[in-house]
UniProtKB/TrEMBL annotation:
Gene3D superfamilies: Glycoside hydrolase/deacetylase. InterPro entries: Glyco_hydro/deAcase_b/a-brl, LamB/YcsF/PxpA-like. It comes from the Bacteria. It comes from Actinocorallia aurantiaca. Forms a complex composed of PxpA, PxpB and PxpC. The keyword Hydrolase applies. This is 5-oxoprolinase subunit A. PANTHER family: 5-OXOPROLINASE SUBUNIT A (PTHR30292:SF0), UNCHARACTERIZED PROTEIN YBGL-RELATED (PTHR30292). HAMAP family: PxpA. Catalyzes the cleavage of 5-oxoproline to form L-glutamate coupled to the hydrolysis of ATP to ADP and inorganic phosphate.
Length: 252
């Protein structure tokens, strides 16, 4: 029998100064990949360093969670950034995180856009091309996490793209994420989140908000670090996947 495998990722290091968001230390013991904020939507040099140290100590893969330059909006506000400027900003974030990660005994092993940028590159070829250009100029071997069907997979044949799905986010019938302004955008019940994760990992599908079934082919499942009860959700997801015979390992 083929053994199914799945990566479990979460957004970490999203505090700033004295302000903290989520329980990074607890989540680090559950996930296999950490999407670490690079300072443009959250995170600062000390938080980045501490998060990288924790990831290395737990054997968790380090991913660069690159974002629009939007600290005030947590990277969730739509922006129109020129190609060259966006590519340079992505490259800046990658370089900063990788430098700190290497000083801690690790390295950046993948990239994941954050927030508004993440949703934008699903359909905007120009912004997706800027992300691809930055990643390829930094390290062509780095894969990028995105939604299935994202145009990010089409803008450059050299770019490695890995599909992911969301256990704690609602889906539209088109297979995209329900915008956060909707009251049903985030799923917070641990049992429901765990059941959704198993269905996505085993059956390759998820139920959209209108009841239709959307196909999902993914190698990684995300649980947001800022979702209420994130640690309990992540533990529920990991336990349910293991019970379903899914091996939890990094995708890189």
């Amino acid at each position: 029998m083929d053994l199914r495998t799945m990566d479990l990722n979460a957004d970490l290091g999203e505090g700033f100064g004295v302000w903290r968001l989520g329980d990074d230390s607890a989540l680090m013991s559950v996930v296999t990949s950490a999407n670490i904020a690079c300072g443009f939507h959250a995170g600062d040099p000390l938080i980045i360093r501490l998060t990288c140290r924790a990831a290395v100590a737990h054997g968790v893969a380090i991913g660069a969670q690159v974002s629009y330059r939007d600290l005030a909006g947590f990277g969730r506000r739509a922006m129109d950034v020129p190609f060259d400027e966006l590519a340079a900003e992505i490259l800046y974030q990658l370089s900063a995180l990788d430098g700190i990660a290497r000083s801690c005994g690790g390295r950046v092993s993948y990239v994941k856009p954050h927030g508004a940028l993440y949703n934008r590159v699903v359909h905007d070829r120009g912004q997706a091309a800027a992300v691809a250009e930055a990643v390829l100029s930094f390290d062509p071997s780095l894969p990028v996490l995105t939604l299935p069907g994202s145009v990010l997979a089409e803008v450059d044949d050299e770019l490695q793209v890995v599909s992911e799905c969301y256990a704690d986010r609602a889906y539209t019938p088109e297979g995209t994420l329900v915008p956060r302004r909707s009251p049903v955008a985030v799923v917070t019940d641990p049992q429901e989140v765990a059941e959704r994760a198993v269905r996505m990992a085993v059956a390759g599908e998820v139920e959209a908000i209108d009841g239709t079934v959307v196909p999902v082919s993914a190698r990684s499942i995300c649980v947001h670090g800022d979702t209420p009860g994130a640690v309990e959700l992540a533990r529920s997801v990991r336990g349910a996947l293991s019970d379903a015979g899914v091996q939890i390992i990094p995708f890189v």
